[in-house]
Structures are given as C-alpha cells and as structure tokens.
Amino acid sequence: MAVQTEDAASLPPAAAPYVSQAWDKYFRFNGWLSKQCLRIAVVGLCVILAAVLTQIFGRYVLNDSPTWTEIFALVLILYVTCLSAAVGVRDQRHIGMESIVIFLGPKGRTRIEIFVFLSMITFGLAMSYGGAILADGVWDYMNPGLPISQGWSYIPLFGGGLLISYFALEQIIARLLNVRVVPSWH
Amino acid sequence: MALTILCLTFVVGLLLGMPVVFAIGLSSIATVAYEGLPMAIVFQRMEAGMNVFAFLTIPFFIFTGELMMYGGIADRLIRCAKATVGHVRGGLGMTNVLACTMFGGVSGSPAADVSAMGSAMIPLMKKEGYDGDYAVNVTTYSSLVGALLPTSHNMIIYSLAAGGVVSMTSLILAGALPAALLTIANVLTAYFVAVNRGYAAGKFPGWGEVWRSTAAAVPGLFIMVIITGGILSGVFTAAEAGAVAVAYALLITVFLYRSLTWANFLKAAAKACKTTGIVLLLVGISTMFGYLMSLYGVAELAGEGLAKISTTPWVIFIMVDLVLFFFGIFLDMAAHILVCTPILLPIVVHYGMNPVQFGIIVLLNCCIGLNTPPVGVCFYLGCAIGEVSVGKVVKSIWPFMLALWVTLLIITLVPETTMWLHDLLMPK
After folding, report:
1. A-B interface: how many C-beta pairs under 8 angstroms?
2. What pLDDT is attached to residue A158?
3. pLDDT at residue A173 above 60?
4. pLDDT surpassing 60 at residue B61
5. Which has the minimum average pLDDT: A172-186, B169-183, B371-385?
6. A95 — contact with chain B (CB < 8 Å)?
7. Fewer CB in 10 Å around end: N or C, chain B?
8. DSSP letter assigned to residue A64
9. Distance between alpha carbon B178 and the CA centroid of its chain, in Å?
C-alpha cells in the first residue's frame, strides 16, 4: 500500500489516500509522464525564444534575416501547446465555470465529473484521429522555408489528443478510487 | 437545427462544469457531424488558428511576467511606490494602487499581479492597521489595470477574435488613456475610503529614498518601454517584442537584481508553458467555433434581438456592456473574449463603434468579471492571500466596483478616451 503520486509523500497523512501498489505505480507513472511532457514543453519554449531572437539578430546585426525561424517557431509552438494542454487536463487547470455540480451530493457530483472526463476523452480521441488524418494527407508536401514535411504540424494534434484522453482517463480512475491526482510539477 | 446543436452542446457542457475548450470542441464536432462534414475540418481550423506568428506573443508575454514575478521586481516596485506616495493619507493604500499598476505594466496579467503584489502588500497593510477587506479590495481592483497595458496577452487574443481588423499597436495606444483613467479612479477610491475609515498618513522618507527606490524599479519598468517602443516604432513585430522582453527580463533578474535562481527560472518557464497550452488550445478551437457562428449568422440574430429593444447607439452599447458583464462573471478572460467578440463586434460596429474601442471595452468587462463571483479569479485570490472572508470583502467592495463601472461607462460613451491617442499617433 502506498500513496498515489510522486509528490504525495509530502502531503500530510490525512490528505494522502491509500491505494493498491499497482494503482500507486500507475499514478506515479502518470506523474512522471506529465512531468516529462512539461519538461519537453519548457525546452521547446526556450528553443522558440532562441529562434525568434536569432531572427532579430539576423535582421539587424547580420543584415541577413533567416527565413526558417518563423516557420520553425510556428511548428514548435504546436508541440509546446499540445503537450502543455494535456498536462493541463491532468492538473485540472483548463478554464471552466462554476457548474450546477455544486448543488449535487457527492455521488451525483462524481457521476457528472466522470461524464465530463468521458467527454474530454471523446474530444481527445477525435483530436488524435483528426490530427492523424491531416498528417497523413499532407505528409508528402514540404513546408515552405523549412525542409520538413507539413505533416509535422499535425503530429502534435495526434499526440496531444492521445495524452488528453489518457490523462482524462486517469482522472476517472482517481474518482472511482476516491483519490486525488496531484500535479507533478508545480 | 445545426445552430441549436452548436449552442445546446456548448451551454450544457459549460453547465456541467466542462472546461470551455472542450465544451467548444465537442459542440463544434457535434455540429460538423450533424452537417455530414469530415471531422478533420475541425482540427484543420484549430491548427490554423494556433499557427499564427503573432500568437507567439502570448507565451512570451506570459513568460516575461512569470520571470519578473519570480525575479524580485515586486519588492522594488513596492519600495518605489511607498517612497513616492506612502506619506499621503491612507499611504499604504496609495502605495498598493501605484505598485499594482506598475507591476501590471510589467506582467500584463491581473491574476499574476494579485499573487505577486497581494502576497507582499496585503499582510503589510494589515500589520500597519489597515482592515483586511480594504487591503484586498485595493489590491484586486488596482491589479486590473494590467489587462489594458502593453504586456497584456489578452490584447493579442482580442486581436485574433476580431478577425485581424485590429492590430496590437492600435490596442496598445487605445489602452493607454483608459488605463490612466482606471488608475485615477482607483487612487481616488482608495483615498476616499481611507479618509472615511480614518487611516493615518505615513512619513515622507525624503527625496534621497524616492530617488534610490525609483532607480531600483526603473530597469524592471523598462520592459514596457521595450514592448511599446519596439512595436510602435516598427523595429519589432509584437512576437519579436515579446521575445526581446523575455531576454531583457532574464538579463535584469539574473545579472542586475541577481534574484532569479535556476529553480525559479524553471518554475517560471513551466508556468508559462502551462498557461500557454491552456490559452492557445482555446484560441485554436475557438477559430472553428467562430467560423460556425458566423456561418449560422449568430451575430445577425443577436443584432436583430437587440434592435427590437432599441436602435439608439448608446442604448445598444450599454446593453452590450451588460451582456459582456453577464458573460464576464461566468467566463475567464480568454474564453470570454473568444466567445463574445465574434457575436458582439459586428453589432457595435454596425452602430458606429470602432473595433479598437470595443476591444478596450471587452477587456474592461473581463476585468469586472475577474473581481465578481462566481468565477472572479482575482477576487478569490485576494481573499485567500489576505485571509479575509468573501462576505467581508463583498460588503466593502461597492466603492471600488462603482469606480470601475463609471470608468467603463466613460470609455463606452466617450470614444475619445480610447481613440484620441490612437488617432493622434496612427492617423488614417
């Protein structure tokens, strides 16, 4: 028996619900996965920053504005967005409004929350499917200004959609086990 | 029928507590499925909506704000504000207004402003004998100015939602006077409430301290000059100005202030990524939602509905304000802008309002929403930081809310407050 996430050890005992070892490993793995997603996004953001600064440096200092920086930054921001958006599902940071759920009892609330997460899984799978179709459709076309396939712009939708569904599923499991998913990287 | 599906799935999703991005996404998917169109179209539009170079401004502005928050600018701004206005009656209230306004100029985010300034100012004010509710109200209302200043990433979101007819430059210029008006309104309200409650005046620390504290704060505030000057002069695009602002924030927090640790840099970057993911995904999916709304003529239908009540422009503008206020109390800023702009902008333009002026009105209405329950992010944040009950803060919120409403009315009914500086520097 152990606590549910990698950060949960720091929680006071009363707030650290106990689950079986298999579920504990599952939640720990998801915490690790979410942290890696965010780490990649942070590196991506820094690379985008460097690309845009290179563009300014090229234009004003070298008098030779690079043409690849803009499209490179645009492709990369899609990866940063989709990875971070998926982490946002795990951390429950996506913007919503106060719902009628507050008027329900604990059981009704859990049911509605599970329905909402099922809807998010549906959206994530649709996003993944749409991303795959679009990537496949333009894979043979090169990006203007950057020698990579245009399909790379749709891969983040495919991966991000799968991650959104996966992390929404974790939220459902957490509710069924009556435990709380703690964000992996505050 | 398709419009009913679009609206119904969206509203039901929201009412059930579904995040706005998924409510919009699922309603778009349901509508497209009903129309028999390929589902990939939703995600093609979503990708196209996110794939705009100007939107790189959003992560850069957020990153700049986070770096400045973790990099110790808050303490320097408070010291500067305290030295300048701390000796006035209710001096710490004035200090709070000035410091929040300056930090708003650096971060562009009211919520970040309340977090950074509230954590420092509210406990200090309480320690000096000010009531907790006063400290919370002064902080939360002063922080709103940030949404109208050049570092505000919500300006970029409005620019997108308006369909590219409003540039970032126009919004920066149009936001200047309303930001000044709002600051004056906040200063006056804080002062009169302070006098009414009998708060004492502070001691003037001398011109030496004023000079030293200002010198310490100026490098941080220079970020506003970089962004505004860079964009207005045409040296940088908005996204490039954002990148330069991040680089500058890194330079001053690491080398000048020496207050940004590696751990805090990572925290700032991670927070910037999280916010970027949430906002840009919403921006992307709203592109499809906006497209469907324009396809089914939602703006025209809403316009016809309003025209049945009145066709007098100022009445329509006030009704639009009320609609914006209503949505503002339920939706967060980005969602509010993205949902309301495509519907209401054609209506106000039809009645003669400039889209630039409307942008500032939308932002100001979002600000009201930030301080109004049930969503009111800044409001709850302030109450939590100040450890003051929501009920107590609500009881004394009225003078501050009234000042904000009066400012909004002036900006709505007097176009010159937004357009004078804009037209002066950007003649047609």
Report:
1. 184
2. 95
3. yes
4. yes
5. B371-385
6. yes
7. C
8. -
9. 13
DSSP one-letter string for B256-303: IS----HHHHHHHHHHHHHHHHHHHHHHHHHHHHHHHHHHTTHHHHHH
**In whole angstroms, what is the distance from residue B303 CA to residue A35 CA?**
47
CA B35 vs CA A128, B1, B292: distances in Å: 21, 10, 11
**In this predicted model, what pLDDT tens digit does every residue of B175-222 receive, in sequence order?**
999 999 999 999 999 999 998 888 877 788 888 888 988 888 888 888
Report the candidate in B204, B180, B182 with the shortest Cα–Cα distance to residue B91.
B204
| Closest Cα in chain A to B33 | A126
Residues B2, B33 contacting (CB under 8 angstroms)? no
Name which of B46, B73, B224 is nearest B150 in CA terms. B224
Are the C-beta atoms of A39 and B233 separated by less than 8 Å? Answer: no
pLDDT at B230 over 90: no
Question: Nearest chain A Cα to B239, which residue?
Answer: A52
| Stated pTM of the model | 0.82
Q: What would the pLDDT profile of B111-160 be if each residue is shown by its tens digit?
A: 878 877 887 788 888 887 889 899 999 999 998 998 898 888 889 889 88
Interface membership of B245 toward A (CB under 8 Å) = no
Using a CB-CB cut-off of 8 Å, the residues of chain A touching B56 are: 48, 52, 73-74, 77
Q: Among A49, A77, A84, whose Cβ lies nearest the Cβ of B243?
A: A49
CB contact under 8 A, A77 and B272: no
Phi, psi of B309 (to 5 degrees): -85, -45
**Cα B91 from Cα B190, distance rounded (Å):** 9
CA dist., res. B293 & res. B172, Å (int)? 28
